[in-house]
Amino acid sequence: MSENCFHCGQTTDKELINFDEKSFCCNGCKSVYEILNMNNLGNFYELNKSSGIRPNDDNTSQFDYLDTPEVFAKVTDFSEGNTSLVTFKIPVIHCSSCIWLLESLQTLNGNINYSQVNFTRKNVQISFNHQELKLSELAKFLTNLGYKPVINLETADKKEETFDKTLIVKLAIAGFAFGNGMFLSYPEYAEQVMGTTDFWMDTYKNLFRFIMFLLATPVVFYSASDYFKSAWFGLKNKIVNIDVPIVLGVLMLYGRSIYEVLTDYGPGYFDTLCGLLFFMLMGKLFQKRTYSALSYDRDYKSFYPIAVTKVDFEGKQQNILLNELKIGDRIMVRNQEIIPVDAILIQGEGNIDNSFITGESASIPKKPGDKIFAGGKQVGSVLELEVIKNVNQSYLTQLWNKEAFKKFETGLDTMTNDLSKYFTFIILGITLIAGIYWGQHDFEKMFQVVAAILIVACPCALALSAPFTLGHIMRIMGRNKFYVKDTLTIEKLAKIDTLVFDKTGTITHNKKANVVFEGEEISEFDLKNLKSLLKNSNHPLSKSLYHFLETQEEYFPTENFAETPGKGYIGTVRGKNYKIGSATFIGQPSKNLETAVYISRDGQFLGKYIFTNEYRENMSEMFSELNDYQIHILSGDNSSEESSLKHLVPNVDKMKFNQSPEDKLNFIKALQDDHKKVAMLGDGLNDAGALKQSNVGIAVADDTHSFTPSSDVIMGGDQINELKKYFDLSKDAVKIVKFTFGISLFYNVIGLSFAVTGHLSPLVAAILMPISSISVVIFTSLATWIRSAKYFKINQ
């Protein structure tokens, strides 16, 4: 008698291996069970009974080639120090327990730092210690667990298909069968309409019916296979997804057609079934192409606001957008800036923090000639780098969207899923009632009615409305220099009721300021050294002072650079040790009502530069437009400009000065504890903690690479006066989504009304499915264009 394996669930007639009062089909399944139990991962089987993958019996020496340096460099995403990152494609990932196990690899092997599954793309990214665990050994380890990675030139190149080729083949087969099925069934339709019997047709009708059966069978079991898989995996995980009623409708029509042909009761519905699946697959292709277009646009556009400083061989600086970087260009990266591209270090002392990539905070020292990977953050003096790879936007997007920096909240997607889930049960109930009614009144018609209900009720338009609308809004905002991390951020922007502004570099210009020096005259020697030191910092006051100093631009290397956030920094230039920062940082008495940068050399105070900040244009109008929001202003500077700010922002609720990065974060927490939905606007440097803590963190970027994964939005500094428009457009986007929910539900109610009363054929129901999706796309495109045109006077 056959039994099922406890691990993989497969049935076998062979003698089972008994272990720990459980039965296994092979030593591989038994070994995986032992590994999981030894590492206290027995919950794997509780998540999903018999959900394991049977280990592959292939010779795992096939992975030895991965340890060849050239192949290793091609396959891995990142390799620095002892840590490497690799993304493996694993097609057999199929359920929640697979995800749970693959994201628990670090508990099975101490040389694995972390692993993260992308279920949609069927891949897993793994960070591991390549000194202790070879890449080939990692691949073998996964294979022994039953998750054999697929490694080929396509996966190594990290290229994503712009469309699903398999879906195209399935659609073509369904279209071929539909066309020929209609041709073969024409004589029978003609006979029914004309009421006459044709001898030739009567003689060969069984042959034609058999051919239609042969045409329909691959359509049902191959072209519709994705629906079967989705429904089966959902039911295995005790979820009744929207593909369940579709599969029931297809099987019912197929089974009824076979019955009619075998009993010579009629021709069946083979032609209708092929047409139904053809139009359903066409709708599915439309949806996938729509999602793909949005995803591509997102990956390509996301980081456009981040500019980088390009330098020529004479030292002249020019700020350019990331997408304009070319191989061979030289760029400058300052303290706390992200490396935007793979590059070679030309000049400077590299101290690279790769925590955004590896999750480890340890810094890696670099010297001229070393390779530096995109995504690392420089901690220390300014670097000059030569670009060796073009900007990979999707890779940077991956960094920005890393799980460690996400703030989990539910949104319209969750609402859509909940609606779809309940909708499925409602449809199954309606189908049952309609089936019972028509079974008693017209048994033959019952099959058409039930199939039509199951097909027309598919809420494809409902599932498409939120991602398409919000994705379209993201694209429009991006074209207007407001770059949003994900669609959930659009929803959060619509709920904001409190705004917290950092002052310096956010509502004031980074470079423009009225500067007055107070102290003894500084020599040309010191001015050049100071300018070289100032070049290392990203602080707005440092940038202003850098552009203010009138001396020949000549760069000298900075040694022992160290910055204390919110206070200042030190560094040695041409043998002289300089301190630049606040009065307390330098050790000087401060005046309460002034913003100043103090400077000392070798412990000797040289003087101070007093700043009167120049505010961005139209700030007064912007704050008056935001009178529906509670407004707070935080600043690391002193209160010298409090009176100016009160005049500029008459509706301000609170102003706080001398705020450290921790003070800002705690202020945000206090507001959230008071049930406020907070958006924080800062420069992305000293404000990183507050940006991450807020419901929406908006980093204001001018001309530097001030990217931080802690922010949800990056906006151009020259667009801040348009802030109200972005908030209003977000609110409009949510309204549009809710309206499209109404449209799709309206489609379903009308379609169900016709289907239940027997006035809708399954084929027409299948045609209505893609039409409803197309109408939603047309409506959202028009609605978002009209609403955005109200705010932005540019070609959308």
Automatic annotation (TrEMBL):
Pfam families: ATPase-cat_bd, E1-E2_ATPase, Hydrolase. The chain crosses the membrane at residues 167-187, 207-228, 240-259, 265-286, 422-440, 446-470, 736-757, 763-786. One of its GO terms (molecular function) is ATP binding. It is found in: Cell membrane. GO terms for biological process: copper ion homeostasis. Keywords: Cell membrane, Ion transport, Magnesium, Membrane, Metal-binding, Phosphoprotein, Translocase, Transmembrane, Transmembrane helix, Transport. The keyword Translocase applies. It comes from the Bacteria. InterPro entries: ATPase-cat-bd (IPR021993), ATPase_P-typ_cyto_dom_N (IPR023299), ATPase_P-typ_P_site (IPR018303), ATPase_P-typ_TM_dom_sf (IPR023298), ATPase_P-typ_transduc_dom_A_sf (IPR008250), ATPase_P-type_domA (IPR059000), HAD-like_sf (IPR036412), HAD_sf (IPR023214). The keyword Cell membrane applies. Residues 310-400 form the P-type ATPase A domain. GO terms for cellular component: plasma membrane. Coiled coil: none annotated. Residues 4-76 form the Putative metal-binding domain. It is a multi-pass membrane protein. Belongs to the cation transport ATPase (P-type) (TC 3.A.3) family. Type IB subfamily. PANTHER family: ATP7, ISOFORM B (PTHR43520), CATION-TRANSPORTING P-TYPE ATPASE-RELATED (PTHR43520:SF5). This is Putative copper-importing P-type ATPase A. The lineage of its organism: Bacteria, Pseudomonadati, Bacteroidota, Flavobacteriia, Flavobacteriales.
